[in-house]
């Protein structure tokens, strides 16, 4: 789950990391009030999960409370990359002497968290040459220690005993503490700003591991899922919308991708990715089928190779939907069904007049045929 | 021969009294797996499918030689269950559980490395040494003895491809599910090295996915292998994934695409199957069969 | 540093461990008040660092506030093994169904913390046969986890899903947390009591690592040192009082023990152990010599083999004391001095008429001779 | 030959700009030790006794091959300094610092084990390979080349005994200070094994103390050794120590006494010297010298 900039900064502040003065507001009057409290030039930043806020005009620099009110009015009405702006962050405008970059994320290849830092932060960070980027993996059994942070500072070319150096030594250690204590897949500060003697997190990007939400109940999140993604997520499933006309359900991420690849290779166009893997039961499977119908595809292709998923559960779900819809499907259905309890499953399908395919490729071909009929 | 497990492997089932675990215990026993013990704290003394249940892994180890464990406990308890097995010295730990927090996974993998143990998963279907031993959840009938080694990240796609191999008369030495999560115990290269050494294995099927650079790293080793490798990479048609801030981009630096993986594997001498059901023909070709 | 029982229990309570109702008081009136709050049979326990409180009559069982007042009056006047009772702990009297034992301490051989537990706790714990004692080492990189605690419970023969079992699983984990967070060399609960469905720490013994006091400033301690031990400790030195008549100072624990062994082998009797090792400077060494004089020995034997300790520092300290005492020593002094800067040191001693010995055994013989003169 | 360090050992001094460290850097250089780098964060670029100073161990390692480090930093920073060296892959870490919290020591020792590194200390005088290399704080003049291996817990007692050896014409292969604290990197047995293998070492002197069971465990190995062992155990006259609650008694169970140690060592074939200055004669006897 992701956080808006202001949520990340509130989290930073709780851990003692330096963030600009200011706070989130949802209306222009409040914005003026915060600007008055700050008492000087401000920044009004739209709170949306998009990297293009600045270019889209979602960041303004008012000098007075009146200007702040006006800026907030403008920004609160905007839509940036399809995302409506519902709140803004009003902050002190920082004097920026230098922009740095600092983050911790998961490196799956190394199976460790990795710190990434650069003395050349800001919008162009991804274009920096390798020698400007510091990567240091964090040994999970050893944990984070001052020497690690000092070496990051050294490699950034910042004197360790300077106020900036000392502050960064703290920041590096706190960032890892946040990651571990809050199960953060990503904590990113870009830019981390030198402002006179201060070092300040001028932006924040925090992503909490979805799988750890059971123990992170106190944190605020942004729900950036589409209605279909949300509906699937509520069923414990994974959904991604695509542009084509064949709705797809398969059990397992790999086989679902393989099904999309096969459809595309044969000239079809998938409407979505829907993984119903991992022992999803009859009821959830039926609901997942309804999500697919909601996409208004030309055909639905269900591709099941039962392992932990039971073919009879899937067949029953198909039959349930068929009956609930008045003994018909709203769009043509193609079902490939083998594996655990396949005989029981096929018998159930036969009762409602559906013949299951043995092979994925045959089912895929038939689905494409129907989608073009 | 086979890799990691064989007909002599004594297996412990963690969380054996649960619904899924007891179902799969029955399936594994039907496959011929030597399940010697189960563990559910507080349920010690009962039996599940004729298998004695203990209160802790240590207690199971006091009563049996345990060569491998399979973990079915829910995600919040998975780290503890994995640590319990590793601490007790169990050399192979198969973690079926999905949804394990990534920082827990990182710790499990680190501890396993320190203990010199093999961890499959989290989020793996398990491992099957064809005809000898199955640990995990794949459907029994598609896995038969033979000389093709299979290593994969994803589950059902592996059943699909292995089922196709079996249907084409190509049995398997061992089918290894490394697990679909971000931080899992093994890499392709670890398993390829084992297959390269295993006398039973004559060819290897590698089932990868877009994302990460595991396949690219594996390609470096494939160059040195004497045994033929056939690969399938899922996700050719997938749209670019969501990025993890700038950090994700900096780590990947353009790696992880379908095209990049296929090129790396092809350059290393592997044959890449365009679609899942193209795999058996390529394996037969590699083995010099018609 | 050690803690009184009540201090340990307050620490336990902060960590959520179950302790009896009650609190520490320093006068009988307060004792009556606490007893009234408890509202039933109580225990009044003398707070001294001695294991023999019960046998010495330092633990009483009043049934009413009046009895509690009287009990406190009695106990607060006592001296137990030479230790005056300055405060008492007034607590609810527990119904005791079973006494267990549980502790974590450092096992130097294993270089790890070790949990020791027994279902047979109480005063006889040290006499329990090996098979009644559970020892489990704690991997410092792995840390403490529920499985460890569950296995302790299993080995104690307590059903894991019983209320007692569940409670002990928590207690085991919290004890290690206390050890690590508070640098405790020892955390001991004896007895840990089953009282109906409750599991309660009926006593506490906590020792904090002296070397970690720099980061444990918020904890209360008992100073159980003698005046000499305290004076030496304040100088950063280590002192133990003995019964003999030759006061001894040497630099390093091993050489100091070796000096005592040599004196004893030759028929002398050491008055103390004083290790002034580790680069102790001139001033502290002079003060340490004054501690030795304060013992009224028949002779003083200073045995220095300079490494990090500098012979000139020691010689200067001896000269300083000599001059401060009006150009004499209060008791005969024997000095053996070799190692770092020995020539400078010997020259300084020569100026005040002291001839240093080259060999420990010669110095030891001379000191014994003088002590018997 | 010698053990652990020799004339080719490149040494890094941690905290080199401090008073003690710079004094001992000079002493070590005078002994002939190859000190190639120092480290004090923020002081990178200066020189101490002609030795270049770096800001971090990593930086020192980027500029020199580091075979061993010696740590002089104050106790609150010792764990961090030790971790820094171990993480950078330094294979021998000598921790002179006294007063390190025991839980820090436990963590240092565990991490060193994982990294396969040797840790001497905390609270050690260091190590000297006679005439070749000295790392730590002992006075130079008493340590000369020869064929007696010395291993000890305590510092000055070791100077005393080594000084006696030298005065009697018995030079040393290596003198190893394991450190006087409760949790130190090595045990007697670790060092005895190294001496047993070292061709230069012809006899071993073990300097122990009452408390713990390190000497008793060592006795088990001494039985198997081909080289003679002479021991001295300090503390014969010491009163019984203060106990750590019941826990200490349960762990020790009567072990750790002077009598027990002497009996164990004697039974294992070691000669135990009654007093420190009895050691040289016993060594000469063991070596067949007059």
Instruction: Give me the count of strands of chain A.
Output: 17
**The top level CATH class name of the largest domain in chain A:** Alpha Beta
CATH homologous superfamily label of the largest domain in chain B: Succinyl-CoA synthetase domains
**Distance between the amino and carboxyl termini of chain B:** 26 Å
Unreliable spans of chain B: none
Number of helices of chain B: 10
* Rounded average pLDDT of chain B: 94
- The strand order across the widest sheet of chain B is 3-4-2-1-5-6-7
Say what the CATH topology of the largest domain in chain B is.
Answer: Rossmann fold
CATH topology name of the largest domain in chain A, in short, is Rossmann fold
How would you sum up the major sheet of chain B? 7 strands, mixed
Please work out how many helical segments of chain A DSSP would assign.
11
Q: Considering DSSP H and I runs of 4 or more, what fraction of the residues of chain A is helical?
A: 25-40%
Residue share in helix of chain B: 25-40%
Spatial extent as radius of gyration of chain A:
26 Å
Strand content of chain A: 15-25%
Through-space gap between termini of chain A: 41 Å
**Helix/strand order of chain A, N-terminal first:** HEHEEHEEEEEEHHEEEHEEHEHEHEHH
The largest sheet of chain A is: 6 strands, antiparallel
Compute the number of structural domains of chain B: 2
Helix-strand makeup class of chain B: alpha/beta
Summarize the structure.
Chain A is an alpha+beta fold.
Descriptive keywords:
heterotetramer, A: alpha+beta, Dna Ligase, domain 1, D-amino Acid Aminotransferase, Chain A, domain 1, 3 domains, 6-stranded antiparallel sheet, 4-stranded antiparallel sheet, 11 helices, 35% helix, B: 290 residues, alpha/beta, Rossmann fold, 2 domains, 14 strands
Task: Describe the protein in words.
The complex is a heterotetramer, with two copies of chain A (373 residues) and two copies of chain B (290 residues). By secondary structure, chain A is an alpha+beta fold. Helices cover 35% and strands 24% of the residues of chain A. Chain A has three domains: 21-92, 2-Layer Sandwich (Dna Ligase, domain 1); 98-215, ATP-grasp fold, B domain (D-amino Acid Aminotransferase, Chain A, domain 1, 2-Layer Sandwich), CATH 3.30.470; 227-372, 3-Layer(aba) Sandwich (Rossmann fold). Chain A is built from eleven helices and 17 strands. In chain A, strands 7, 8, 9, 10, 11 and 12 form a six-stranded antiparallel beta sheet that branches. In chain A, helix 4 (146-155) crosses helix 5, helix 8 crosses helix 9 and helix 9 runs parallel beside helix 10. Chain B contains ten helices and 14 strands. Chain B folds into two domains: 10-120, NAD(P)-binding Rossmann-like Domain (Rossmann fold); 138-286, Succinyl-CoA synthetase domains (Rossmann fold). Chains in contact: A-B, A-D, B-C, C-D.
């Amino acid at each position: 789950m992701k956080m808006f900039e202001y949520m990340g900064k509130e989290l930073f502040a709780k851990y003692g990391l330096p963030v600009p003065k200011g706070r989130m507001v949802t209306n222009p009057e409040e914005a003026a009030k915060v600007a008055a409290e700050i008492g000087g030039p401000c920044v009004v930043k739209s709170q949306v999960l998009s990297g293009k806020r600045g270019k889209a005009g979602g960041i303004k620099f008012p000098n007075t409370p009146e200007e702040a009110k006006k800026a907030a009015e403008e920004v609160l009405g905007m839509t940036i990359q399809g995302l409506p702006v519902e709140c803004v962050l009003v902050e002190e405008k920082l004097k920026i002497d230098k922009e740095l970059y600092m983050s911790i994320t998961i490196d799956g290849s190394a199976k460790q968290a990795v710190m990434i830092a650069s003395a050349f932060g800001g919008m162009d960070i991804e274009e920096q040459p390798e020698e400007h980027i510091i990567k240091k993996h964090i040994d999970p059994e050893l944990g984070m220690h001052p020497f690690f942070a000092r070496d990051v500072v050294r490699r950034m070319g910042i004197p360790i005993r300077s106020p900036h150096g000392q502050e960064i030594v703290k920041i590096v250690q706190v960032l890892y503490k946040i990651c571990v204590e809050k199960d953060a897949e990503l904590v990113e500060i870009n830019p981390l700003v030198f402002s006179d003697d201060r070092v300040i997190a001028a932006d924040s990007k925090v992503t909490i591991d979805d799988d750890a939400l059971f123990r992170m109940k106190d944190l605020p999140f942004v729900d950036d899922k589409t209605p279909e993604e949300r509906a699937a997520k509520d069923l414990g499933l994974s959904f991604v919308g695509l542009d084509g006309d064949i709705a797809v359900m398969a059990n397992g991420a790999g086989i679902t991708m393989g099904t999309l690849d096969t459809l595309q290779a044969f000239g079809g166009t998938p409407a979505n990715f829907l993984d119903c893997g991992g022992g999803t039961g009859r009821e959830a499977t039926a609901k997942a089928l309804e999500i697919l119908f909601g996409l208004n595809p030309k055909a639905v292709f269900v591709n099941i190779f039962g392992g932990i998923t039971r073919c009879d559960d899937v067949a029953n779900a198909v039959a349930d939907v068929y009956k609930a819809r008045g003994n018909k499907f709203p769009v043509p259905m193609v079902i490939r069904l083998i594996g655990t309890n396949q005989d029981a499953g096929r018998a159930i399908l036969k009762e409602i007049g559906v013949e299951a395919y043995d092979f994925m490729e045959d089912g895929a071909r038939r689905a494409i045929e129907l989608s073009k009929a | 021969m086979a890799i990691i497990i064989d007909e002599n492997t004594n297996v412990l089932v963690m969380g054996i009294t649960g619904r899924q675990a007891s179902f799969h215990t029955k399936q594994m026993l039907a496959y011929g797996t030597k399940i010697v013990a189960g563990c559910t704290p507080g349920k010690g003394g009962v039996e599940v499918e004729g298998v004695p249940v203990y209160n802790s892994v240590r207690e199971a180890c006091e009563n049996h030689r345990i060569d491998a464990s399979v973990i079915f406990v829910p995600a919040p308890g998975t780290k503890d269950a994995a640590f319990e097995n590793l601490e007790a010295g169990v050399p192979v730990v198969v973690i079926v559980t999905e949804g394990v927090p990534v920082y827990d996974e990182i710790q499990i993998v680190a501890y396993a490395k320190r203990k010199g143990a093999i961890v499959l998963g989290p989020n793996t279907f398990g491992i099957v040494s064809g005809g000898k031993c199955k640990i995990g959840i794949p459907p029994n009938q598609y896995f038969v003895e033979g000389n093709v080694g299979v290593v994969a990240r994803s589950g059902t796609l592996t059943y699909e491809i292995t089922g196709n191999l079996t249907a084409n008369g190509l049995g398997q030495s061992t089918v290894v599910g490394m697990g679909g999560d971000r931080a899992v115990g093994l890499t392709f290269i670890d398993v390829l090295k084992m297959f390269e050494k295993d006398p039973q294995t004559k060819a290897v099927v590698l089932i990868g996915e877009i994302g990460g650079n595991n396949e690219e790293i594996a390609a470096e080793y494939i160059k040195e292998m004497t045994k033929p490798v056939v690969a399938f990479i899922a996700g050719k048609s997938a749209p670019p994934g969501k990025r993890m801030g700038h950090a994700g981009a900096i780590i990947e630096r353009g790696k992880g695409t379908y095209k990049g993986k296929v090129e790396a594997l092809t350059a290393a001498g592997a044959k890449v199957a365009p679609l899942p059901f193209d795999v058996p023909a390529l394996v037969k070709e590699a083995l010099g069969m018609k």
